[in-house]
Design brief:
Blueprint: H1 9-29, H2 51-59, H3 61-89, H4 96-141, H5 143-146, H6 152-191, E1 197-198, E2 202-203, H7 207-226, H8 230-253, H9 260-308, H10 314-331, H11 333-358, H12 365-368
Helix pairs in contact: 1-2, 2-3, 3-4, 3-6, 3-10, 4-6, 6-10, 6-11, 7-9, 7-10, 7-11, 8-9, 8-11
Amino acid sequence: MFVSFFPRPKLFFLSAIVWTTLAMAFWYGFAGNLTGSSTPGGVGVAIFWSAPSLGSALILFTSYFQVQVSVAINSWYGPFYDLVQAALSKSKPVTVEQFYSELSTFAGIALVAVVVGVMTRFFVSHYIFRWRTAMNDFYIANWTQLRTIEGASQRVQEDTMRFATTMEGLGVNLISAVLTLLAFLPVLVRLSSNVTELPLIGSIPYPLVFAAVIWSVLGTGALALIGIRLPGIEFFNQRVEAAYRKELVLGEDDPARVDPPTVSELFGAIRRNYFRLYLNFMYFNIGRIVYLQTDVIFPYILLGPTIIAGKITLGSMNQILNAFTQVRTSFQYLVNSWSTIVELISIYQRLRGFEAKIGGEPLPSIETRTEPKSL
């Protein structure tokens, strides 16, 4: 899976992490001082042409550029919602030109986001398909060793496709989550300076950062525990589907195959395994939906004392809520991706059987394990 595309995967990924760390340290520690300061409170498309933003985008590729778009939009929230609050409360005169000028600023930022986002997805898709091509060529070159493994054709054709597609989605989201966290943590610390205490807890340093980390870690841990059986069940799903498909394919050429008792037994295994999967996903979805619905009002609960005390404006509140959501969502990467990760683990386990066969190693234990007969 990895050696086919990255001949020395450990060295490649380690060097990529080290280089990214050094590059970020250089730009944020030194290169950021090479540019002049921007206009206080000013937000617009020009934010992307400044040396720190452009340098970061070039170093961390277009993924970080998209994160910078989110940062720019968060900065836009403050003056826009303060303008709305001033207009609604009649605290100061607001013209139609000012209102639509702020909307045009957002349109400019959104246009950048659309162009960069579409191009990023386009190039990432091509890059990931090269990974599938490398896996396909690697397995076909070793086909004589692999053809005897259960569902070999399905693993080469379908599992490599699903592995590449799933890695594309999870990989892009993971990079985005990490870079969003790096970008928005300082923003959240700065914006939450007026939030001095949390309900039930009281006054602590960096209260919103503390709350985002604890809330996300608890949610991730709880849902991972509830869904711990899902990867194995998904693996068995692929096995019973492969056995049923193989019998049907053989029946196309041999009229003696696909007899009713055999087909009924094979499909019965599919039905039993899917019902087991549905039941376990029901437990998982109960926990996930309860957590995510509570998550919607969680930041308002935290900001309750601050809002009631009138310590922040509407614009500041929206900036804080957006920054808090970005940080919290980054920490919740596993929560939001768990169903996809379950699928990826099952695919990985199936392809690991290929890797073991090629290397002359014993097959993973799950290859010889029989699926349970009961739910």
